[in-house]
Amino acid sequence: MQHHSQTSAQPTAAPATHVVPLSVYFVIFGTLLLLTGTTVWVAFYDLGPLNNVVALGIAATKATLVLLYFMHLRYSASLNRMAVVGALAFVVLMIGFTLSDTITRPILLPAAPQFSLPSTSK
After folding, report:
1. 3-state DSSP call for residue 16?
2. Is residue 117 part of a domain?
3. 69 and 25 within one domain
4. How many CB atoms neighbour CB 69 within 10 A?
5. Are residues 53 and 90 in the same domain?
């Protein structure tokens, strides 16, 4: 008499994955290089108060591309996206508090008296 042992192994479902073509990574990499070159090119021009705005705009675009494609946020669950948005909101909040402190210091603190050293020449 043969004893057949049958195991009731549940088939395991493969995790949902996404396959990104290699060409997408090359296009994103090329775009990042182009934006880096744009940052260097713009740095040689005096745009006045827009220097920081342009530099931060390019940096934010590059960071968004890295988050979406290299960190796979574009294909991930919405909970991961909410976590990133929450972290960015926290950073903006902390920078806002810091700026509100440093910007209002001249308004709230009286001007310090200006002292000059006596001259030593006769």
Report:
1. coil
2. no
3. yes
4. 19
5. no
Q: Rounded to whole angstroms, how far apart are CA atoms 79 and 23?
A: 28
Greatest alpha-carbon pair distance for the chain in Å reads 123
The percent of residues in the chain predicted with pLDDT above 90, rounded, is 51
| Contact by Cβ (8 Å): 64, 74 | no
The verdict on residue 91 lying in a domain is: yes
Q: What is the pLDDT of residue 102?
A: 84
Beta carbons of 73 and 80 less than 8 angstroms apart: yes
- Shared domain for 33 and 71, answered yes or no, is yes
Mean pLDDT of the chain: 84
Overall domain count for the chain: 2
Based on the domain organization, do 30 and 64 belong to the same domain? yes
Residue span of the structural domain in which 93 resides = 77-108
Distance between CA atoms of residues 41 and 43, nearest Å? 5
Question: 17-61, pLDDT tens digit by residue?
Answer: 778 889 999 999 999 999 999 999 999 999 998 999 999 999 999
